[in-house]
Amino acid sequence: MNLQQNQWTDPQRQSPAALMLILFRVIRNMIKTFWPLLIIYFVRGSRSFDSWELILILLPLFLFVRSFLEFLFFRFNISDEQLIIRTGILRKQTVAIPLNRIQAVHLEQTFIHSLLGASRISFDSTGSEKVEVKIDALKTSNANELKDFILSLSDTTVYTANTPFGKNPGYTDNTLFGEYPESPGNDAFAGNATGIEGGKVAERPKEKALITLGLSDLLKLSFSSNHIEAFFIILSFLFSILDNLRELIKDKIELWADEASAYLVAGSATGIIFLIVVVLVVSVIVSTGRTFLTYFNFFISKTATSYKIKSGFLNIREKLVPFNKIQFISWRANFVRRKLGIYLLQFHSVGNDEVKDKQQIKIPLTQTSFIPLLCNEYQPLFEDGSLHMMNAAYARRRLLIIGIPLTAVLTVVGYFMMEWKSLYLLLILPYVYISARTFSRRFRLKLSEEALFIHKGVWGTQEQLLRWNKIQKISIRQSRYQQKNNLANLYLHTAGGVLSAPFLELDLAQRIMDYALYKIEAENEPWI
Amino acid sequence: MEFINPTVNTDLLPKAAGVNWQPLEQAYLKALRIQLLIGSGIALAILIIVLFLAPISNLFLTALLAGGLWLIISVGTWFLQSISFKHKAFALREHDILFRSGWLFRTIAVCPFNRVQHCAVSSGPIDRRFNLASLKVFTAGSAGDIMIPGLLQEKAFIIKEFLTQKIDSDEPAAESMD
Known about the structure:
The complex is a heterodimer. Chain A is an alpha+beta fold. Chain A contains 15 helices and 23 strands. Chain A has helices at 17-44, 51-73, 111-116, 140-153, 215-224, 227-246, 250-267, 269-295, 335-340, 354-359, 370-375, 393-418, 428-442, 480-484, 506-523; strands at 75-79, 82-87, 93-98, 102-108, 118-125, 133-139, 158-159, 194-197, 200-203, 208-212, 299-302, 306-311, 317-322, 326-333, 343-349, 363-365, 386-388, 444-447, 451-456, 461-467, 471-478, 487-494, 497-505. A seven-stranded antiparallel β-sheet of chain A has the order 16-15-14-20-19-18-17. A four-stranded antiparallel β-sheet of chain A has the order 10-11-12-13. In chain A, strands 1-2-3 form a three-stranded antiparallel β-sheet. In chain A, a hairpin with a 2-residue loop joins strand 8 (194-197) and strand 9. In chain A, helix 5 (215-224) crosses helix 8 (269-295), helix 7 packs across helix 8 and helix 12 (393-418) runs antiparallel to helix 13. Chain A is globular, with a radius of gyration of 27 Å. The two termini of chain A are 27 Å apart. Chain B is an alpha+beta fold. Helix content of chain B is 47%, strand content 23%. Chain B has helices at 26-53, 59-87, 125-129, 153-169, 173-176; strands at 22-23, 89-92, 96-101, 106-112, 116-122, 132-139, 146-152. In chain B, a hairpin with a 6-residue loop joins strand 6 and strand 7 (146-152). Chain B starts with 21 loop residues before the first strand and ends with a helix. Chains A and B meet through strand 21 and helix 15 of A and strand 4 and helix 5 of B.
């Protein structure tokens, strides 16, 4: 394809749909940030034009003008085999990615995108570039053309995320694998089912559906999710409302609070039970809602080179995970889910830092037999290999370094607030010790020629699978106590996060370090 | 053998912990102390200004406590710097770079050359006064960079050049994709 003759050579802006998206975002962010003020404004029922109105008009106007200017100054083009994106109003920034570095192209379509007939296009590249490269809104057909064009010039073997956004996958049974049905298509993206191999446009192979979630799976996930977390979300939400409203409608709030407390005192035990039941029911409803919003129509499929994960109710998220970008795999379960055999699996790809990690799609597995299915492309689970535990001193040290100082401070502070009742806080000591002891007893480190496997957890469980060749840096850390007792913490840094194994025998930690270096340096197997 | 590995005798593998460590330049300790003196001086000046301006009822006692705390932190840092300086060292092997640091918490970090993305040499005004520089080795790993301070500037650039050649010859990950 001749670069000089394509429609992407000249710098160009995003689709006008981006302006609508900007407007939507400004309004959404305004409501999200200032909703307590908006409530106060309407509750006050002020009729005269005052500073409130001025703020409500000027702030979104300013934000929109700024976003509009950002839209005007955002330009992209393809030149000299590079994708070039220029941004910035006053401080200009230019990001240039060589096309042969582009690993994957993602198309995303939120609810607003689908209304506007636009898609977001983002790019994954190799190397340590931390900059997220994306074009927020392009007409869907243009986005497809750009994706195909970029991939046709790319040297890498990449299959793109040709997503069925508009339609649901249509699989409502529990799980489908063994027999792989064809991935459902989509009208919006029809005719673009192509992949690129060796720089040539090739017919994309049919995707193999691995896992879908049905209604019963979603319910299982909902009821086993962390209701305590949901409870605290509700609590913090309520506190933030009260905090924001307190100053301006103090009298009304106090009146409501008085009425509520009078009702509770009158009802006494019945009132408390009622409150607990209400909180419990609301927590379960919130957890269920969150689970359905996140995992509705969950679908994971497999192409020749990557996994495609899609889920979501209003905002459909689709993530393409090329096999070679997976740095390590982890799966975890809370106490209830561990008993039920439900896990959340995560592919830790290149560039997953802690913040981004929260936005990653976690794959819900309702049967433990799915785990090897999703690990096989990366590293088959291994039964053989040497098994190691951590030193039992871990529990004693946790008690000494965390348990005792924490309990001492809390108990002393607690004494001034609740006198002798603060002695109940001494129960923290056995809790810290039992937790640490359980953690050290359950910890397992399994080593094989090709990979290592870590199993840990106190009440719940977390497992991590790492291939030696994915390690970027290894470090051994010793406190003074560990130096005297020949113990060490081992840290394995990958491009997808850090794995740690605390309180190993120093000799073992050093041997693991030496073996990992041998695997990385002698075999020189690529990590991506 | 505890560490099961049918093809490789791990006992015969080169030991990363047993390398010949190269200490940092002695001038680096002087640079650290000057930095500490400047930092402590600024902290003391701020402390004095706050004590004079703030409406404190028992000025003498507050000044005594704050001054004592300042002295303990400054002197403590001085001694900790001296002790930890002795433990800081680096080593270059055929295939990797190692850095050792810390006294209370001793750390050994190793980065293989075929995982290095790029490296950089930097030096601040005090470093330049002593002809010193820091070498930073970047990997794609999360918290996976290694920084070796207190090198002579010429030495830092020689190591950087050596690493750059190594990166090229070892085919970095990005190139291995092509």
